[in-house]
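Entry for glyoxylic acid complex. Fields follow.
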Amino acid sequence: MNILLSGKFEAAEHHDWLRSLRAALPEAHWLDREQALAQVDSVQVAVVANPPAGSLGGLPRLRLIQSLWAGVDRLLADPTLPAGVPIARMVDPAMNAAMAQTALWATLSLHRGFFENAVAQRAALWLPQTQRRADTLQVLVLGLGQMGQAAATCIARQGYRVHGFSLHPRSAAAAPAGIECHSDMDALFALLPLCHIVINLLPLTAATRGLLDAHFFARLPKGAAIVNLARGAHVVDADLLAALDRGQLRHAVLDVFHTEPLPVDHAFWAHPRVTVLPHVAALTDPASASLVVAQNVRALMSGRPLAHLVRPADGY
Ligand code: GLV
């Protein structure tokens, strides 16, 4: 079985992926774009990590595009994407766990004032923070996909009051235990005045692009904090900076940006109330993700249902 592996990888990363994918699917031959083009009729599966636009064209027998990334916004934005070929997102338990850790770290640091302590240390300032009980803070997790659910559940376990927002209504049975779930934009905006910390894990779609804007920030209580672990384009940067500078927002933890790497002259870098991470909240783990790839490829080959399929009309 021939599989195209396409994406933006560093050399060492490419080597790690190939090793893990070969171990998980020893029956497959892994081709680069050039090799795939030399035998287009043999390629039924493409495994991709943000591939360059156009790299999935010209493969007439393609039956599955399996992303190594959880977010498929860039993939779906490729106008040359072959129509009608199923696309599967990466849903990797190791990645969900990493995302939950990052969300919990941000929540704890914001709640306990540890980011302020880090700034104070640079000025040799002894600055004890007031301490509130976790159950007096309300945390809103935007997006209740696999990562949102893992983050919300992990934070709720620490005693915070957690609300979740998903783009589609979920039945009571599908709601994560202990999380109050909302799905309507009006309900979301009605809830914002109660939320001290907002963690964004939404997919980037036409409905969510720019959601975190001046209007959104103004609904939050003064001194609330934002944690963006999803995509940079969810945030209107100028509105976020204005809300921070006015004191409407106390702090922002940002892992994702409109342009990555974040340009050196961007105001986020030096802002005392912004914590910048280099898109590392949850990296795909080659060993566990390769097992997910193998399961889906074997499902395709034996005619079983594919897992984690993207609904292109919804944009995720
Ligand atoms: C990372 O941002 C991903 O989508 O996997």
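NOTE: The first strand starts at residue 2 and ends at 7.
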